[in-house]
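thought: fold this chain, then report.
action: predict
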Amino acid sequence: MKLSNRLNKFPEYIFSVLDKKVLDVEKKNGRKVLSFGAGSPDFPPNKILIKKLQEFIAEPDAHMYPGYGAIPELTAAIKFWYKERFAVNLDDDELFPLFGAKDGVSHLTLALLDDGDEFLLPDPGYPGFSGPALMIGAKPVFYNLLEKNDFKIDVKELEKKVSKRTRFIWVNFPANPTGQVATVKELEKIVDFARRHHIWLVYDNAYSEVTFGGFVAPSILQIKGAKDVCVEIGSFSKMFSFAGFRMGWIAGNRRLIAALAKVKSQVDSGMTKAFQKLGAYALTNFDADWHRKMIASYEKRRDIIVYNLKKIGLEAKKTEGSLYLWVRIPDGYKDSGKYSMDLLEKRQILLVPGTAYGKNGKRFVRVSICVNVDNIKEYFY
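observation:
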């Protein structure tokens, strides 16, 4: 009996591979691995929101199919959030709920790409941008985010990479894995590029509410005319510590959102009504005090992790956004894969090899700051 040839077109997801390796090392050494791997927001969710979720689940119709698209409460709440947070007005058909940001990342490829089409994406960049497209025979064309350019986009390079086969470009700030941020002025250049070349721009803004040092992340939809070519993906996971609830949204160009909605009508039956109501309540009753405590927790841990990385010869810089540090490996190592595995075996510390995010990650590792650091000295000293 045969399996699909499609399975040969893409690799196993990096964290699936690393989870198996961690289990092997723990079994071999009899010691728990200190993992700086997946960026799973671990700051406890607001107790008020958890109580509201319990109420919503207990409602008489909570177990029923929710229907396709957003319920009225969530539609109103996302529109409210964009107006209050970004001064952006949305119409009802310019937004759609997602099962987390990754849902939009994966299923947008089915709405945008055909076999042989090209799309632009960052290197280093989130692996989820490329995997689903490889499944359907599309061709990723990588643009470089380099240390010499402060891990920012070079529009001149984009001009050389775009072709008649290019259908869209992925852009992600605050960025995974580099932690770099972008201003409205910087994003305006990318929107202008997309408009001039008549391609879509998909902006992954999942970390917009995880920033440090006074930086406030913008929405790409703030840019005049952006909705002509752009959609933006947002996430409840990072904003409210709801990662396991799988909640997100997409907003922007109504034509592209309608295309995604058509795809999703075939692959799921809509977001659970209780979670939609939770998202609506969270957005319209934003607890700034709880949010400040969450950011303070991540910032404190970021600083502790940076200090301890120096103890083992790594020079980490404090990032302004996201949940990650992008750290250059020691000169004695040729690539980050070897360095990461040696560190895992010798110290039971897991840092993600930068090669998981592209060829430009050969000299880097990604370090999550969503880590309990209470016992960090046991591993670094």
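thought: worth noting. The longest helix spans residues 288-311.
final: tokens above.
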